[in-house]
Amino acid sequence: MSDAPPGLILILEPSLAPPKRNRIRKRLEELGCEVRYIDGGAHPYLEVSGEVLPVRTISVESWPGVVRMVPLSRAYPQVAWGSGRGDFVAPSVVHLPGVGDADPPVSIGAGSFTVLAGPCAVEDAERTVRLATIAKESGATVFRAGAFKPRTSPYAFQGLEGDGLSILREVRAEVGIPIVTEVLDPRHLEMVADVADVLQVGSRNMHNYALLKELGACRHPILLKRGFASSYDEFLLAAEYILSRGNDRVVLCERGVRTTSGTVLDLGAVPELRRRSHLPIVVDPSHGSGSAHRVLPLARAAAAVGADGLLIEIHDDPIAALSDGQQAIAPSALAGLIDDCRAIRNMIESSTTELNPIPSDSSARKD
Ligand code: PEP
Ligand code: MN
Fold first, then answer.
1. Predicted confidence band at 351 (pLDDT cuts at 50, 70, 90)?
2. Backbone angles phi, psi at 233, to 5 degrees
3. Ligand 1: which of 151, 201, 204 to mutate, most ligand atoms within 8 Å of CB?
């Protein structure tokens, strides 16, 4: 038996006969685990180490003689703090390549507050260059626009696709700003990665495991948006698909979840994901609210709960926008939004208020 700590324990029925217990042990060993029986009297159990992750995904609790499975580690070891690869004891930072000589390379996470802004979709070259220029002048350091758009209706504008990518290439060179754009389909990965600095996985595709596996094999940073009906575990397991295949440059994006009152931005996700994972977290108040008047207040709130950045949609003629015009803020409003959020973020960073402070002198307790 190796010295590895157990990854889970299986609590057994107290009166389980040894042959039945041995069947369980044998099955676990066939699955690549090491097993140790602990005779806990009325509470016997098996300590299981080795390849425990696959065991967690099968219905062990329905095996005869098993009372309960107690996992002792996260289901997403690469994404979780510390565990798995050991070196992630500090928050991870995703570095983007520099674009142009003048600008320092952009990074997301660990102290920086990065704003990714742009129109929902690439609509035409002139407007895209104009909006990218304003985004950059306003303090956004990544330009975001979709060439392939995931639309609910097949009759809605689907994006300019290859032509949109050509426009984004032009914008990158002309304006000198890194580009994030969505990849919808593994078959488009090569052409999108050829232009994009960061590949976006949209909310609808968070469960597209074929796509996630391909992204795990590439070297591009990935902006992974939370599925609009996903739990935190499902979100982090989607990220684990990418990290477990070798690409650790993932940024999580909270973009709201579907409720009976429409989409609601889940700002509580930020501290919760932070507690569970070393990955940077950005917030998208545009898709998370679906309405322009809610974007500034929610962006400020996202900075206050500790987001590492924001994804903001802008448009200079929302009525004419081909997608998501209702949630686009005026380009002229972007600089003020970014200033507010950076000020809030700085205030939080410099605050000395502790979360759940522990009294330094516990003898002073009067109980
Ligand atoms: C988008 O970012 O334009 C988009 C479609 O977002 P989501 O995938 O979060 O709906
Ligand atoms: Mn959009």
1. confident
2. -60, -45
3. 204
Of the residues 142, 143, 200, 201, which should be mutated to test ligand 1's pocket, given the most ligand atoms within 8 Å of the CB? Answer: 200
Tracing tokens 């940077």 back to the chain, one arrives at: 280
Indicate which residue's Cα is closest to atom 3 of ligand 1: 120
Q: Provide the token pair at 175.
A: 């304006």
Read off the amino acid at residue 313: E
Least confident of 94-108, 153-167, 174-188, 232-246: 94-108
pLDDT of 297 above 90: yes
Which pLDDT value is given to residue 366?
41
Q: b/e for 280-314, b at 16 or more Cβ within 10 A?
A: bbbbbbbbbbbebeebbebbbbbbebbbbbbbbbb
**Which tokens belong to 131?**
């909006």
Q: Is 314 left (phi over 0), alpha (psi -120 to 50) or beta?
A: beta
Note the pLDDT of residue 3. 73
Residue where the block lists tokens 């499902």: 234
What's the average model confidence in pLDDT over 2-26?
92
Distance 367 CA to ligand 1 centre (A): 53
Q: How many CB atoms lie within 10 A of CB 328?
A: 23
φ/ψ bin of 180: left (φ > 0), alpha (ψ from -120 to 50), beta (otherwise): beta
Q: Cα–Cα distance between 189 and 196 in angstroms, integer?
A: 10
pTM of the model: 0.92
Rounded mean pLDDT of 113-134?
A: 98
What is the reported pLDDT for 283?
A: 98
Taking CA atoms only, the protein residue closest to ligand 1 atom 4 is 202
